[in-house]
Amino acid sequence: MKLLVAALDSELVAFDVDPEGFERLVTGIGKLNATYALTRRLDAGGIDEIVVVGTAGSLDPEIRGVHEISAAIQHDVIDLDGVAGQHISLPARVETGGGTTAIATGDHFVDGAEAVAVIRALGATLVDMETYAYIWVAQRFGIPITVLKAVSDNAQDDAMTDWDAAVAGCSVVLRDEVRSRWGV
Hints:
- The chain is an alpha/beta fold.
- The chain has four helices and eight strands.
- A five-stranded mixed beta barrel has the order 3-7-6-4-8.
- It is globular, with a radius of gyration of 15 Å.
C-alpha cells in the first residue's frame, strides 16, 4: 500500500477520496504535526511507499510548476556555533534518493525578501513547512519517499494571499502528476 500524504485537505481537493492502491493521510501544518502524524501511521505498518504532495513557495520568481524534491534542509534552526541551517542533533540535509530540487523547511510561512535571501544562501530553491520532517521519518522507517511540490507563490510580499488563491490549482497539477506516474 502507498501512502498519499499532504499537510492540508486543500492540497488534496482535486484527488479522489480513495485512489486505488493509496491510503490518504493529512498531517497538519508544520514539522511537529508532520512528524507526529506520519510516525503514528507508519508505526501501524502496511505501507511500502510514501508519496507526498503539496505546495511550496519559490525562492526564485522564474521557478514554477511541479518539482520532485531531492533533498530538504531546515532553514529555521541554528547549531551551537550559530550556523544557520544546522541542527544540534539532526542531519543538516535529508535526501529522498530521487528528484532534482532542494527545499528548505521551517515552521513559519516565508513571505519576505530578507527571509528569502537567507534561505537561498542555504542552497534551496523552494520553501515549505513539512518536507524535512516527512523525509526524516521515512528514513527512520526505511520506506521510500517521493515528494512532489507545486509552486504556489514567490515566498515574497503577499505570498499568503497568493497561496490561498493558488492551492486548488496546485492540487490539480499534483493530481495529474500522480496519475501520470502511478496511474490513479
